[in-house]
Write a structure and sequence with these properties.
Layout lengths: L7 H18 L4 H10 L4 H18 L16 H21 L31
């Protein structure tokens, strides 16, 4: 087991990175374009050409011409599934931190177990001033 000390900003960045990795593993290559398009403020006219390139990469790497694999699909790589589980553990913790009263969203129910790896755990440590 490992221990990593991070801030809430770190956790939120890890959530974004893990989400992107799990989506790429499912064949959602358009998400790469969407994520980096926002990050680098890519104009719409360039996004169309980049979208075509994403589709060509997807067709070259997978047997998908349209659509994508579900996270539980046998075609989805195990690392993408582990990434998804870890992302959901982090999202669950942040959801309860930001909304201790809970809510109706599925994220308050806890992460879905889809791999043989044990689910990660996260605990907030109180810091002294």
């Amino acid at each position: 087991m490992y221990k990593l000390t991070v801030t809430q900003a770190h956790v939120k960045l890890m959530i974004e990175a893990l989400d992107l990795y799990s989506r790429v593993g499912c064949g959602q290559y358009q998400e790469v374009l969407n994520t980096f398009g926002r990050l680098f403020k890519v104009p719409n006219e360039k996004r169309e050409a980049l979208g075509k390139a994403c589709r060509e990469i997807k067709e070259g790497l997978t047997d998908l011409s349209d659509g994508y694999y579900s996270i539980t699909s046998n075609e989805t790589p195990e690392k993408a599934k582990i990434s998804y589980e870890l992302m959901k553990v982090l999202m669950h913790k942040i959801a309860w931190e930001e909304h201790p009263e809970g809510g109706h969203l599925h994220i308050f129910d806890g992460p879905m177990k889809i791999t043989k790896e044990p689910l990660a755990t996260i605990k907030k440590e109180e810091t002294s001033s």
